[in-house]
Amino acid sequence: MAASPSTNPMSPRIATFTMEIGLESDLPTYSGGLGVLAGDTARGAADLGLPFVVVTLAHRAGYFTQTLDEAGQQQEGPDEWRPEDRLKPLEPRVQVQVEGRTVHLQAWEYTLEGHGGDQVPVYFLDSDLPENAAEDRRITDHLYGGDRRLRLQQEIVLGVGGVRLLRALGFDDLHTFHMNEGHSAFLTLELLQEAGGSAGMEGDELETVVEGVRRRCVFTTHTPVPAGHDRFHMELLNQVLGPDGTALLGALDLVEDGELNMTHVALRFARFTNGVALRHARLSREMFPGHTIHAITNGVHAETWTGEPLRRLFDRHIPGWREDPFLLRHAVALPLNEIQAAHREARQTLLDEVQRRTGRRLDPERLTMAFARRAAPYKRADLLASDPERLLEVARRGGGLQILYAGKAHPRDERGKTMIRRVVEASRALGDEVPLVYLEDYDMELGALLTAGADLWLNQPRKPLEASGTSGMKAALNGVPCLSILDGWWIEGHVEGVTGWAIDERWEDPVDDEAELEATLRKLEELILPLFHNEPEGWARIMRSAIALNGSHFHVRRMLQEYVDRAYTP
Q: What are the residue ranges of helices labelled H in 336-440?
């Protein structure tokens, strides 16, 4: 393992750009895994002493709050907050051009402090200023809201405005600009223009300037399907970015079939590109032939996502784990009875919260299975709920089962909303024999309770669409084994019957919903429920292995050390 970057005098100064970030549960500047990963990365960078800064948008209107009616129909409400109440205002203002208008931007600072006292600042760009036109004041308001025009405006603010903010703050010695997804790829145009690049350059002259930008840029792609990569038509680009910007894109030969693919922009300018799991990197190379795409598997911030009872257990037996989660490999020696006692406490905390939120009192003696993820169709939250009669039979023979669901569907995602309704409908068919509760308004706080307090973590994505997934990593830190499709990180973390169970047999097999549902139910009936109810020590051994094998590896410290070794040092 490489030396800690905090002690490496050659470590560059790194700026990472992200459209969303999860820092606190009640700061609604995140929607799901991408944002929470960005927050975990910043925390890990502070712990490691990396010279790291983060740029994002203020999103005053947040994402949204979720309520469900009796039929499971999702209702969205505002989730507004005021940076003035939570963040430190910064003095310098910067400007960008949007549709020919000057848009003024201010910034707010949130500071993360690591174990050694090192700090990582997070800068939130905000267009809500009185000197801006009314429509421009709203540019940075909504996370993933609005139409393609608003998305393009936000990406100009993030990429171009972000670089200008860093320069205004005095960050002139940045060696690495890290683009998380293509949302921030316009930063490359700003760097190109800083270096004197223009649409009038041709051939070797232009390529020399491009190469200078490439030496400073790193790109991480998180999306394994073409539809998930932002594209903008030239007509819209001309209107919003302006003729100078589109002329430069044309000179760089980045416009294909009248469209600009932001991922192609990032790929053109990145010295290092990676996917977020081994399988995802392979898929990305297939999607973008001709590009070298490496694999750095995601990780989570161990201290943040380990529940309090397990934290105390680790503190007693594995001192130093908070600073160095690799030490969790020593969990192989944890007393089984202490693991069981800590988990009982975490489970009761979760069940108490379920009762507080819903009025339903669940049985701590039943196996509590959780499925909590963003309600996107490919994640298939409704797969298990599609055959409630068969699920009832499995629970009767297995000794008792209860299920917790949580997750928001994007306001415009009707398929995701339908999926939630189907789960709620199944809960009525299952009745009290297999209690199924869909918890509203999934956020970081609820996610932490679920990953710490569930007995089993269920994950059923439609392969190969799971780029990585991090919820199961959080569960593993708490000794909660996974029952999951072999996709994303689980291909790397799965050891059958040791860290959890695979629903399918091979990660390359074609998808078959019916077969995968039957495999899930069969694993529950034949292996998981009998083990949980009849062999508590055997179950505790699997919990211990999940911590020692998965918890000790799939954390953000390991992930960041890979970035330092392979990506961040030019």
A: 336-358, 388-398, 414-430
